[in-house]
């Protein structure tokens, strides 16, 4: 069952809407990728094996791309953006390694999760190694402000993970509570990745806040689309098994909206499957049917478009340029993934 949301976005090609930005930062990303490869090296053989299993698995590297892009938008021409972009990617990879252990996931980016291949302990410890390398590179850049932003982000992301644990399997979770979780767990790294660009360039607080707001709203939109894809996407588009959120008892925005409108019988279904973990073979299809009945996927898409519009508006302080236009198109990329 696919997600059918009739609007102009259905004709968008997600890859095409990202292509201009990828082209504009291609030179910088070659250096970022080289830095990533060099910094995963270790005399402990398992570390590069586990790290490269995930790092080389075909992710878009959107977050480090955004670091390079916002630095360029603010006319920064130094080397620091490359190391900070690599730091951002290492932070992201570390959280994925840790997430898969917490969620007991079997797949990541279309491949067997590292925890399945090497075990939970190795996944956690290699994630810790990558975090350590990320902070070493931040220190090498020498910007105390950038270090403060990214280290604060690491703390907030961890808080978001714990918040998600407390919300897991709780069908009484409110929309505000859920948005607080994804703002911390997912959007904070987008925000920090974008904010360090103008910081490196020495731009004023207005432009720093603009880039941060762009990243935060883009990150929320990105996660909301992931929420939709878990019930109506494909394993290829999601990078993990469709329905994993449902099987793991995760409360996402479509669930929050559907439970809010549920009948007593439907509430019993959600409590059995999500709170008690009693999931039968046909329950995912039933969940999808209920989400469609109450317009929960469509409304989640509408929320994602709202945050996407806020991301576009946030860039208003910057004059027109190819880089600004490419950053605006990234919003289209995030939303169009659901089609």
Task: Indicate the structural class.
Answer: mainly alpha
Overall number of structural domains: 1
Global Rg: 20 Å
CATH superfamily placement: Farnesyl Diphosphate Synthase
Number of strands: 2
CATH class wording = Mainly Alpha
Give the SSE string: HHHHHEEHHHHHHHHHHHH
Average pLDDT, all residues: 91
Secondary-structure arrangement, i.e. CATH architecture? Orthogonal Bundle
Distance between the termini: 12 Å
Taking the sheet with the most strands, its summary is: 2 strands, antiparallel
Low-confidence stretches: 1-11
Shape: globular
Treating each run of at least 4 consecutive H or I residues as one helix, how many helices?
A: 17
- What percentage of residues falls in helices of 4 or more residues? over 70%
Q: According to CATH, what is the topology?
A: Farnesyl Diphosphate Synthase
Proportion of strand residues: under 5%
> Order of strands across the biggest sheet?
1-2
Quickly list its features:
globular; Farnesyl Diphosphate Synthase; two-stranded antiparallel ribbon; 17 helices; mainly alpha; 339 residues
């Amino acid at each position: 069952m696919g997600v059918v949301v009739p609007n102009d976005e259905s004709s968008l090609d997600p890859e095409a809407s990202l292509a201009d930005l990828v082209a504009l930062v291609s030179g910088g990303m070659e250096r970022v990728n080289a830095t990533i490869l060099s910094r995963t090296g270790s005399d402990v053989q398992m570390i590069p094996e586990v790290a490269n299993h995930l790092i080389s698995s075909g992710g878009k590297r959107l977050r480090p791309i955004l670091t390079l892009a916002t630095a360029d938008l603010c006319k920064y021409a130094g080397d620091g953006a490359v190391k900070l972009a690599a730091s951002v990617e290492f932070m992201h990879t570390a959280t994925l390694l840790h997430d898969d252990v917490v969620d007991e996931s079997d797949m990541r980016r279309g491949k067997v999760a590292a925890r399945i291949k090497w075990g939970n302990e190795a996944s956690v410890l290699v994630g810790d190694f990558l975090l350590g390398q990320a902070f070493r590179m931040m220190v090498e850049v020498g910007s105390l402000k950038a270090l403060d932003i990214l280290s604060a982000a690491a703390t907030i992301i961890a808080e978001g993970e714990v918040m998600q644990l407390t919300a897991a399997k709780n069908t009484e979770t409110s929309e505000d509570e859920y948005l607080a979780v994804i703002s911390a767990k997912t959007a904070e790294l987008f925000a920090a990745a974008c904010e360090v660009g103008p910081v490196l360039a020495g731009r004023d607080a207005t432009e720093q806040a603009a880039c941060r707001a762009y990243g935060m709203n883009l990150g929320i939109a990105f996660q909301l689309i992931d929420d939709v894809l878990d019930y109506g996407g494909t394993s290829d588009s999601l990078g993990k098994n469709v329905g994993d959120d449902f099987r793991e008892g995760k409360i996402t925005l479509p669930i929050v909206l559907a439970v809010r409108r549920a009948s007593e019988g439907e509430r019993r279904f959600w409590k059995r499957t999500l709170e008690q973990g009693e999931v039968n073979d046909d329950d995912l299809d039933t969940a999808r049917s209920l989400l469609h009945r109450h317009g929960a996927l469509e409304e989640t898409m509408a929320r994602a478009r709202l945050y996407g519009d806020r991301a576009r508006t946030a860039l208003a302080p910057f004059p027109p340029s190819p880089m600004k236009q490419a950053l605006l198109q990234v919003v289209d990329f995030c939303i169009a993934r659901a089609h």
